[in-house]
Design a protein that fits this description.
The protein is an alpha/beta fold. It has 15 helices and 20 strands. Strands 14-15-16-13-12-17-18 form a seven-stranded mixed beta sheet, sandwiched between helices. A six-stranded mixed beta sheet has the order 9-8-7-10-11-19, with helices on both faces. The longest helix has 25 residues.
Length: 470
């Protein structure tokens, strides 16, 4: 695969300060498909300096002009949609159809939303005897994960640009080729030099250097809760803002009277999408005890429609997980579920294919709330089905983890579902199969994070407030 040998800093590709490299491996066949520089603190410093130098002019650029450039970026992404989707399939292992429709389609929609928001957002208002100004916070250090390597980049870059901030992006080391393509798109769209900068590298080196750099005003991180704690501590020592989108263990609550077949099939699909590597995946299915065995049977039938396969094949619905470490981690959780007494309904810890980082799509029944597989984020194609006696117990189970990112409720009518959803301790809830909305705030309660992404709430994360009294 095509890869740049340097970093995108100050509007050009520059050689890295060191010679260390990161190999990029195709998780479907375990072959090396490329490599990028492993950036150092020196590279991060150069990028932050470029972003600082570009900040005054970009912050002073009229919002409508910033929006027009975001629109130009959206158009480049749309024109290069196939290339980007193929790259994501190659380095992440996402099935080609999902790569094009979701991995690239969603970022295009997000960029489009911020092209419009930049021009229409109220950056100042009059309150009594004061004029309140919402101003860009400054230089943003954006650290993104591998599970949605373009969407998570655009979800940070687009609102930051709309707000008038400049950025340094440190993408995940497993999927840096997508980030390089994005940097090319930024350049092609005509966004001024230094406004966006890219440093590839590892989390402990480049990521830590970016989070700790005194020239960074806000750190926006998406990833595990464990790493989020470290970044929060690092940023807190310098009293700088953070936005953290972290882990999840989302509950899919099916209330009596709901369309059980639809709720189960949709829930299984939600877990299997992206091979379970979604922080808001509905990995806990809660079903009333009277319908429990019927739901288990339906789930087993639904998961059978997700055999693993070559992600380049248009018919494949379930690809590999991203790397060998993730494969072993997910299989370890499956083994632990069996050891703790859960009933294996489908799948299991055995390798479904001889080559590649594949995990069998797995469904557990007879899962109790205290089991490890019901409490910890597995980040793979593993579904746990739990029984409840009444709504109060269902609510206690749904709220009974340290996470609170996503969720779903199914009921016979919207009013009943909404009433239950209002009591869930989570940042986003889908009602009777509600669709994802790129304008709705995305983020979590509890240990699922701090702050929100997407839409106007996502834009607000990159602004600070000033009041003028007159």
């Amino acid at each position: 695969m095509k890869a740049h040998d340097g970093m995108y800093i100050g509007g050009e590709w520059r050689p890295a300060a060191g010679r260390e490299r990161i190999e990029v491996v195709n998780p479907a066949d375990e072959q090396v498909i490329g490599g990028v520089p492993a950036g150092s603190a020196e590279d991060v410093d150069a990028a932050v300096r470029a972003a600082r130098a570009a900040f005054p002019a970009w912050a002073a650029t009229p919002p409508a002009e910033r929006g027009a450039l975001i629109g130009a970026l959206r158009d480049v992404l749309a024109a290069r949609k196939k290339e980007m989707a193929e790259t994501i399939t190659a380095e992440l292992g996402s099935p080609s159809g999902f790569s094009e429709a979701v991995h690239v389609g969603s970022p295009i929609a997000v960029a489009s939303s911020y092209a419009e928001l930049a021009a229409s957002y109220a950056f100042e208002e009059r309150i009594g005897t004061s004029t309140v100004l919402l101003e860009p916070i400054g230089v943003v250090g954006a650290i993104t994960p591998w599970n949605y390597p373009l969407h998570q980049v655009v979800a940070k870059v687009a609102p930051a640009l709309a707000a008038g901030c400049t950025l340094v992006l440190k993408p995940a080391e497993d999927t840096p080729l997508t980030a390089q393509l994005f940097a090319e798109a930024v350049h092609e769209a005509g966004i001024p030099a230094g406004v966006f900068n890219l440093v590839t590298g590892t989390g402990p080196v480049a990521g830590q250097a970016l989070a700790a750099h005194e020239g960074v005003d806000l750190v926006s991180f998406t990833g595990s809760t464990a790493v989020g704690r470290k970044i929060g501590a690092t940023a807190g020592a310098a009293v700088k803002r953070v936005a953290l989108e972290l882990g999840g263990k989302s509950a899919n609550v099916i209330l009596p009277g709901a369309d059980l077949a639809k709720a189960v099939a949709t829930g299984v699909g939600h877990v299997m999408n992206n091979t379970g590597q979604s922080c808001n995946a509905l990995t806990r299915m809660l079903v009333h005890r009277d319908q429990y065995e019927e739901a288990v049977t339906l789930a087993a039938a639904a998961v059978a429609k997700y055999p693993t396969g070559d992600p380049r094949d248009p018919g494949t619905r379930l690809g590999p997980v991203v790397n060998a470490k993730q494969r072993d981690r997910v299989r370890g959780y499956i083994t632990q579920g069996i050891e703790e007494g859960a009933r294996l309904v489908a799948g299991g810890p055995d390798a479904p294919r001889e080559q590649g980082y594949f995990v069998a799509p797995t469904v557990f029944a007879d899962v109790t709330p205290d089991m490890t597989i019901a409490q910890e984020e597995i980040f793979g194609p593993v579904l746990s089905i739990l029984a409840y006696e009444d709504e109060e117990e269902a609510l206690a189970i749904a709220n009974g983890t340290v996470y609170g990112l996503g969720g779903a409720v199914w009921a016979a009518d919207e009013e009943t579902a909404v009433a239950f959803a209002r009591r869930m301790d989570t940042g986003q809830v889908d009602i009777n199969g509600g669709r994802f909305n790129v304008l709705a705030p995305f983020g979590g309660y509890k240990q699922s994070g701090v702050g929100r992404e997407l839409g106007p709430h996502g834009l607000a994360e990159y602004l600070q407030t000033k009041s003028l009294q007159f």
